[in-house]
Amino acid sequence: MPSFEPLPRGFFDRPSHEVAPDLLGRVLVHGGADGSVAVRLTEVEAYGGPGEDPAAHTYRGRTPRNAVMFGPPGHLYVYFTYGMHFCANLVCLPEEHGSAVLLRAGEVVAGIDLARERRSNGTNRPADRDLARGPARLAVTLGLRREHNGLDAIWDGPAGAVPGEPHGGRLSGWPAGSAAVLAGRPPGRSAIRSGPRTGISTAKETPWRFWIEADPTVSPYRAHVPRRRSAAATSVGDAPSS
User: Fold this and answer.
1) Distances, alpha carbon 64 to alpha carbons 57, 67, 70, 79, in Å
2) DSSP H helical segments within 30-119, as ranges?
3) Concatenated DSSP letters of 1-36
4) Which of 96, 178, 184, 198 has a CA-to-CA distance to 159 between 20 and 30 Å?
5) Residue 135, CA distances (Å) to 42, 45, 131 in order
6) Cα separation of 105 and 242, whole Å?
7) Which domains does the chain have, with CATH numbers?
8) Would you place residue 229 in the very low, low, confident or very high pLDDT band (cuts 50, 70, 90)?
């Protein structure tokens, strides 16, 4: 079982491309009104700061939309993309730096029944490996939406009193409306792979996508394919695949 000890805020007070590989194997838990789900992260992408990374939301500076990325590290930046999906990021570096890691895929390690319910459409239920396989699916599985943009993902309760210890596949006592990144079960360094980020049209060769080799929950790599954008379409680079 992964460790459910919370990570400190200082873990995120580093450049995103350093935080990203260290996030692999960590657990993100979110307590929703209908219950709690925890996902062990298996695939992430780093995005740099203003003027540094043309694929990042912050490339041209601070706006009302990306303001959370300029806030304290360890907060969730949740955005809506292509009029269809939400995607979740974890903010890195100190305030005013504007950097984050996109959460691309993971394995559900607690709250599996609720995760299945959230991802079912009434007629089809995805395989368990596909519940959080892709950034949009991950957000649905964790119950993350627009109102969770800015949510602090650092546990601020008493040391040793993390309420999310799993019992029979469930998270007991996790507060609704809260989130935390927990120590989880990081892979060995030899199991971590890196390569170009998925589906972006600029800075395409930057090798800031990180994943756990041979993990079945990792999403397939897709190069950018130009397509018509709606007025509501926004993303980091271009729409991530899910």
Assistant:
1) 11, 5, 10, 12
2) 112-119
3) --EEEEPPGGGGSS-HHHHHHHHTT-EEEEEETTEE
4) 96
5) 11, 10, 10
6) 9
7) 3-212 (3.10.300.10)
8) low
SS3 115: helix
Distance of alpha carbon 170 from alpha carbon 220, whole angstroms: 29
Exposed e or buried b for every residue in 3-16, given b needs 16+ CB within 10 A?
Answer: ebebbebebbebeb
Q: What is the mean pLDDT of the chain?
A: 88
Tokens representing 39 are 């996902």
**Mean pLDDT of the 148-172 span:** 69
Name the pLDDT band for 232 (thresholds 50, 70, 90): very low
Q: Angle 135-142/112-119 helices, nearest 10 degrees?
A: 120
Structural tokens at position 126:
């995805």
Q: Length of the chain in residues, anyone?
A: 242
Instruction: Kindly report, residue by residue over 28-57, the tens digit of the pLDDT.
Output: 999 988 889 999 999 999 999 999 999 999
Percent of the chain exceeding pLDDT 70 equals: 86
